[in-house]
Description:
The chain has helices at 135-142, 157-162, 187-196, 234-245, 255-264, 303-312, 314-326, 355-358, and strands at residues 27-31, 38-42, 55-59, 62-63, 67-72, 77-85, 90-97, 106-109, 113-121, 124-128, 173-175, 199-205, 228-232, 250-253, 273-277, 292-296, 337-341. The protein is of the alpha/beta class. Helix 6 (303-312) crosses helix 7 (314-326). This is S-adenosylmethionine:tRNA ribosyltransferase-isomerase.
Amino acid sequence: MRRQDFYYDLPDELIALKPAEQRAGSRLMHVDGSTGSVTHRQFKEILSLVQPGDLMVFNNTKVIPARVYGNKSTGGQVEVLIERIISDRKALAHIRSSRSPKAGAELTLGEKYKVQVEGREGSLFKLDFGDDASVLTVLEEVGHIPLPPYIEREDDSDDRQRYQTVYSRDDKKGAVAAPTAGLHFDDSLMEALTNKGVNLGFVTLHVGAGTFQPVKVDDIHNHQMHSEWMEVDESLCDLVKSTKASGGRVIAVGTTSVRCLETASKNGSIAPFTGDTDIFIYPGYEFRCIDALVTNFHLPESTLIMLVSAFTGYQHTMAAYAEAVAEKYRFFSYGDAMFLTKNPDAINEPIAQSETEQKTDPTEKN
């Protein structure tokens, strides 16, 4: 299975640089996983696609203003992107500068806060924020919302509110990217779901910058998946079990919710889980928990489009993406959404060789 099999051509003008005027004002593509049939809807029509007794699972993480600008002691400029908060005063971060800072180097963030580089952990730098202020205090005061790299503009005041779900919790701060499928839900839609008899459950996964990491290897089986911290508690497990027992569906809102639910169900039945997950879901994966999925449109050749292909089927997924381009849907984080049901035959679906693979001499070494 090759990375190139998950490529599609996307015109730049279809990349959403701003959110829709209203959260629930985006479009919704409904893809039937059994047949591949596509229906075009408005997002608020999701109410007609769910039933009383279904369980929708949301990721309640809160995005932190994780991008901070500053200077090295030599005067050179630095851009710091916090990847993970380790403790009140320490964090792991990506640092962009003309030269990588060495252990012991001091950085000034926001022209005020002194931070020391303790060393490196792989590609990340370990930072000590000292006694002046906590990591979160510094970020809240001088940090910027870390918009995805394909949104080529500076963040603005609107992003503080719109690049955040309405159900994110202050005690769940830690994501550096939004669980974007949830951006379409407003308070009134959440209330309408409850009034219809749909149960709402919550997991936590602190989305990291690794979610934008491209797959660089041709054979996707050789891709090293990034890790993210997650939590599935006992109350959510009980909700999943009772939903299944009563014949309801478990509907994951976003691929991060999928990662949580499937990680916690790795032994066949869902159980509480707290810790890191590096689960990589691609065609051939056997889903153990979810029955339907709400998600945005993802980048070509990304691990996320591979996840969707594993769930709804490769052929159905790629055909739906081609139709989305033709119908001029808005793509990526601030774009439109999909409602996908499970393809029971996806696990056994063969994927045709890509043109790149077909033209490769099998005796030729890479």
